[in-house]
Write a structure and sequence with these properties.
By secondary structure, this protein is an alpha+beta fold. Helices cover 44% and strands 32% of the residues. The protein has one helix spanning 7-67, and strands spanning 73-79, 82-88, 95-105, 108-118, 124-131.
């Protein structure tokens, strides 16, 4: 009499279940990594856009200062759907002026401080740097 072992069926079933669990874990990990990478990418895009907005505001402030040395700043500028802010311009007259600009996109905020040695006849910029917190502005 020949008897067939039913153990090989159980072993096959358990093997398929283990392989399925491992494949599901790998797939879930890849999906989570993809979502995380997408969020990081979105944050980087926002950070770059907010820096571009801050630079645009600083350039605008420089242009306005060249047009009128009494330019006081303290204004918001709309760039597309985003905004940037020029804080009150520091200093008086043609020499030793400071422009602080802040660009915001979503949760990202970037700040620039521009120190100007001379405005006219030729603008001479001493420094143009990104800062975490304004130190030269009110």
């Amino acid at each position: 009499m020949i008897t067939h072992s039913t153990r090989s069926g159980y072993i096959l079933l358990i093997t398929i279940l283990v392989i399925g669990a491992v494949a599901s874990a790998i797939l879930s990990s890849l999906m989570i990594l993809g979502i995380s990478a997408n969020q990081v990418s979105f944050s980087v895009v926002q950070a770059n856009q907010s820096l571009a907005n801050a630079q645009a505001c600083a350039e605008y402030g420089l242009m306005k200062l060249r047009q009128s040395p009494s330019y006081a700043g303290n204004e918001f500028i709309t760039i597309g759907t985003d905004q940037c802010e020029i804080l009150p311009v520091g200093g008086i007259g043609n020499n030793n002026r400071v422009i602080c600009a802040e660009g915001k996109v979503g949760d990202s905020v970037r700040r620039l401080e521009v120190v100007i040695n001379q405005v006219l006849p030729q603008t001479k910029i001493y420094s143009w740097q990104e800062v975490a917190v304004f130190s030269l502005c009110e």
